[in-house]
Amino acid sequence: MKLHYISYSEIDKLRYDKCIENAVNGNIFALSWYLDTVCQNWDIIVDEQYKCVMPLPYIIKKGKKHLLQPILCNQLGIYSSYLFIPSLFNSFYCELEGRFDSSYIVMNKMNSLTSESIFFWNCDIIKPVSKIINNSIFIDTINSFTIKFNVEYTELAQLWIKNPEIESLPYTEHNNIIMNYLINNLYSKNLGSIIGAYDSNNQLTSISVWTWTHNQIHLIFAASNTKNTAINGFKNIIEYIIQHNCEKAITIGLPSWIVDYEPNISQLGFQQYNCPVFELKETKANWLKKLF
């Protein structure tokens, strides 16, 4: 397989997005409009037929080029309609040699690396919801919550500003601009939503951002006015997601920081899985030694 490093201005976005859509491991985070929203610069490595591709988001700092995972982007890596075999990975990694001064990219779970990994949570919704949900976990007998769909961005921003150091994404003006732009795109394309939990006094207690494509629902952001899971309503949001998607043969994906909002996530039908991390801290001359 012959691969090419393609700069952003030369990418055929129609063919690129078709590759992501048709890939056996495609997801929303690699689509061109999503990458355009969450990062300033990105190139790709691609085969001649646009059947196998790796998006490369990067920043330039003090004259050095750093391959770096964008915010609000759970997983990236190599996407392909081919079978994932060792020679495929080797070809991509060799094409990357010497192009970046450092890297930190969370690959998708179908990419194999001899490096560290980061875990996520998955729940495959392929059976009746009554068999998935343990009512003793989901039903709150003291506090009742109303779950609202397509919440206005202003409500998210207000709760985020009140809790600027949250685990999923700290509040900054820069992050706020990107988030607002992303939400507008998700709403206009009907590919995501802000979902909020409101207490009996109609006060917003928890808010979250979800995306959906490729038979996958991903949580990309969450904020709450309290870490007290008994009263923040976040588990009710997860119940809402499961109940409204049961028996659709989809997968719900949650980042590792979900335990800050719902520590009993494993009791809700979710299981851990690992995604490899492509991380380069050594000099360019030695970086391939880490991979093979």
Verbal overview:
This protein has helices spanning 13-22, 32-38, 86-96, 129-132, 135-138, 153-162, 173-189, 234-243, and strands spanning 3-6, 41-47, 52-61, 64-68, 79-80, 102-106, 117-125, 146-149, 192-198, 204-213, 216-224, 250-255, 271-280. With 292 residues, it is α+β, with helices and mostly antiparallel strands. It folds into 2 domains: 3-112, no CATH class; 121-273, Aminopeptidase (3-Layer(aba) Sandwich), CATH 3.40.630.30. Strands 1, 2, 3, 4, 5, 6, 7, 8, 9, 10, 11, 12 and 13 form a 13-stranded mixed beta sheet that branches. A hairpin with a 5-residue loop joins strand 9 and strand 10 (204-213).
Give a quick set of tags describing it.
292 residues, alpha+beta, Aminopeptidase, 2 domains, 13-stranded mixed beta sheet, 8 helices
Protein topology:
Blueprint: E1 3-6, H1 13-22, H2 32-38, E2 41-47, E3 52-61, E4 64-68, E5 79-80, H3 86-96, E6 102-106, E7 117-125, H4 129-132, H5 135-138, E8 146-149, H6 153-162, H7 173-189, E9 192-198, E10 204-213, E11 216-224, H8 234-243, E12 250-255, E13 271-280
Parallel strand pairs: 4-6, 11-12
Antiparallel strand pairs: 1-2, 2-3, 3-4, 3-5, 6-13, 7-12, 7-13, 8-9, 9-10, 10-11
